[in-house]
Design brief:
Elements (H helix, E strand, L loop, with lengths): L1 H22 L5 E7 L4 E2 L3 E10 L2 E2 L4 E8 L5 E9 L3 E7 L8 E7 L13 E8 L23 H8 E7 L7 E8 L5 E9 L10 H4 L19 E8 L9 E7 L6 E6 L5 E7 L4 E9 L9 E6 L25 H7 L17 H9 L9 E5 L11 H5 L6 E7 L5 E8 L7 E4 L2 E3 L1 H5 L6 E7 L14 E6 L15 E6 L15 H4 L7 E10 L5 E7 L7 E9 L4 E8 L1
Parallel strand pairs: 2-9, 22-25
Antiparallel strand pairs: 1-3, 3-4, 3-7, 5-6, 5-8, 8-9, 10-11, 11-28, 12-27, 12-29, 13-16, 13-18, 14-15, 14-17, 17-26, 19-24, 20-21, 22-23, 24-25, 29-30
Length: about 575
Amino acid sequence: MRIKKQLGLLILAWMSSFYSLKAQQPNFHSLYAHQAKSVYGTGDKVYSKIYVRQNNRLLMQPVNVYVDWYNADGLLLEHQTYLAQKGGADINFVVPKNYAFAFLRMRAYTLISINQTPEFRYCDQVVPVYQPNLSSVEKDSVKNISQPQEQVNAQDISEDLIAIKQYSQSFDAKGKNEWSVINKSGDFVNLSVSVVEEETYIPTLYSIRRDFRAGSPAIVQKTIPFMDAFVQVKGAFLSEPGELKNAMVSFSLMKRGTVPIIDDVPVTDSGTFLVDRLIINDSATLGIQLDTRKKKKQKIALQFQQLGLFADAPAYVNDFGYPLPELRFQSPKARELATYVPAENEVVVYSTSKSPLQVLEDKYTTGLFKGGDAIGFNMMTPNAISFTNIFEFLKGKVPGLQIFFDTDSMGQKSMPRLFWRSQQDMLKFFLNQMLVDIDIILTLNINEIAYVKVFKPPFLGAALGAPNGAIAVYTKQGDEANYIPKGSMLTQIPIKGFTSYQPFTGPKYSSEKQKSVIDKRRLLHWVSSLHLTPEEPEFKINYFNNDRSKRHRVIVEGVQQNGNLIRKEWILE
């Protein structure tokens, strides 16, 4: 009996060890890119979608994805960093106007994937670039690496996972098309949708079913010590143990064009701290200040590093292992259409980044207070908070607005008087869009004010109107911070952020004036991040035809949460 009991314990211990090892198997990544178009021209913006699977399932947790763009000789043109969420990342690249090669090389990877065996490290793709003086893409002499056959039944199951429902269709010049993608899987799916004119279509070089690789734990060569997601900064203070007990690190994130944020993180017993889960585009400055129980300010040496591969990428590579197929048009007419260069009066989509004032306008104003004939001021700058009140700050800054101060018996400034030229009546004043007396505004601590907006006369946002203009004052909501408080001991750390993605925006032909432009777009529509769930299984797609196309090619690719690959391609005619 005792032997059986010991044997049973040994079996339980072995099973526990087995499942423990199985649970600790290393994660592995595989990536694939869906290109919005199969060929681009010089000066064009490349739209792509990167899909990431972990352990052959869609990676639902955030992860940083790195994309490097090389010319045909392997010279690095741009190193990019994107945040993939729910298994996908939207990416951009602008083909240089003077680009002289017939193709670009695109390489996508994660910090996990580059620590795998060579054939599983990267998603490498060729992006053809049409050059009028070259008849085709020159063939590369590198050896073709055969692609593994994976999920051969994916074509069959795609019909079971998604469906298309058509509402309206028009191939007239600038005609409107409307249809829906419907999720039939009963599970979460991440999709991307490309619509191009069939007349200039060149068969795509890649397919999600053919080029998305399946892996196993055996491909992992080295595991990384942390999960590479978001922007992370790790620091260490060089001090004696015990000095930093219960210490905190206050940090201020400062980025031009956005409202700064401030927060704090604890310092460990070993003197380290981690600032993570930051989402920053381009670059920013991180201000670090050590807060201890000691009131006396002290200087402590600080070491820091930004985790991930935000700044590091190989400048030159020659280890691409894929062929470069010839670029062939379907007909002479297709070549003629593809060589077309847009004129100045044709459809052009502009994108702009928000200024700091636009950020504040969107955050604080609503209703009739939004927009209008007004001048806004950011009150969270060192210059603004140096004034005693907002009237002193506004003096001389608004054309036409006159500000005078009455004086008391002691000769000190007291109540301000404000009016526009040729106007003798006082303005109206609003605190967080509520009508108040001027003395309420005068007694406000300027450090509590986030945004001030001066409306020129007349202002219609007040009850009975404000024919002589108005001043709206907005106080902080608690999630703001001044850029750098006076007397602070902030240590400035420059950090690199994510590459700014400019989303695809097609034209909206809602008026005859808009329809008067010439439209010869080859990419008619692109939806890069289409997330469908059982609760919201349908997404409606609206887009307008160009001036010439009579047939549209639609390609839908994506991944189900369980890892199933989806591809559906058809012609609208």
